[in-house]
Amino acid sequence: TPQTQFQTTDFEFEQYMEIKAKKVNQALDEAVPLRHPLKIHEAMRYSLLAGGKRVRPILCIASCELVGGDEEAAYPIACSLEMIHTMSLIHDDLPCMDDDDFRRGKPTNHKAFGEETAVLAGDALLSLAFEHVAVRSVGVPADRVVRVIAELGKAVGSDGLVGGQIVDIASEGKQIDLGELEYIHVHKTAVLLEAAVVSGVIMGGGHVDDIERLRKYARYIGLLFQVVDDILDVTMSSEELGKTAGKDLITDKATYPKLMGIEKAKEFANLLVAQAHKELSFYDSAKAAPLYHFANYIAQRQN
Ligand code: GRG
């Protein structure tokens, strides 16, 4: 249950998300201008600007502001995070991976541009992500930029997204236990959310204690993200099954509700929200309001 100190703040979370997402979209649009060679830049922009909730950039900006940083310091890395997230979606959708036809309400990148271009668009976005944060973070002490680049690199590689994806692929068609399921989720989803929060804290000039506290917060909401996803799979209406998220059930993949039961999974989600909130209790409640509501938003999301 939410702490009373937060219930009394009349923070407009939806409005906050809308305002920040608009600024992020504008920054992303400017980060990848349409230029020669047209095809690759079209493909990069197609997926990058296709919508998406902008969860990772906004988490980054909110974390930067929480520790007293200027939000402008967070925009370059916020954009880099979205570039990486987008490229992981493009590659995840490829025929050699999940083989999906639709993403963010549009045909997937390889459906629109062909497989060769989709692979390259992903590669180009990944490379641009590192260039962008290094080049655009002007006025921020160089040591912060270097630390953030290290965070980002780790979140992408074999200890991050790639690690999660390879274990996921290896587990296909096999019975896996809760430990393995958690490894996949932590690496495919939570590490990038964690990198978003921690890089925001670093860019905002946060101290070691801030990094530790907010890293824990990020881990809780990262896991929460996936537990909620799994619960949504089960509670989705039957006509939705067989479309997108419901396919996990059909392919008999392990999920939290399956491994622990739907009620226990819901209890686990509530516990994760409470634990995330607890990490914020150190901060002024008005300043922590965005991250506080973010945890609720992830818990309550419907898609
Ligand atoms: C990163 C080099 C590199 C390769 C990619 C394919 C792959 C390795 C990793 C898979 C990563 C993946 C697709 C994880 C799922 C992440 C996830 C929770 C997606 C949904 O995120 P939302 O809900 O989506 O934030 P929107 O569209 O709103 O951004």
Automatic annotation (TrEMBL):
Coiled coil: none
Cofactor(s) for this UniProt protein: Mg(2+)
Annotated GO biological process: isoprenoid biosynthetic process
GO molecular function terms attached to this record: metal ion binding; prenyltransferase activity
Pathway as given in its UniProt record: Isoprenoid biosynthesis
Keywords of the record: Isoprene biosynthesis, Magnesium, Metal-binding, Transferase
Source domain of life: Eukaryota
Keyword Disulfide bond part of the UniProt annotation: no
GO annotation, cellular component aspect: cytoplasm
Record-stated family: Belongs to the FPP/GGPP synthase family.
Protein name: Geranylgeranyl diphosphate synthase like 1 chloroplastic
The species this protein was found in: Nigella sativa (Black cumin)
Coverage span on the entire protein: 58 to 360 of 360
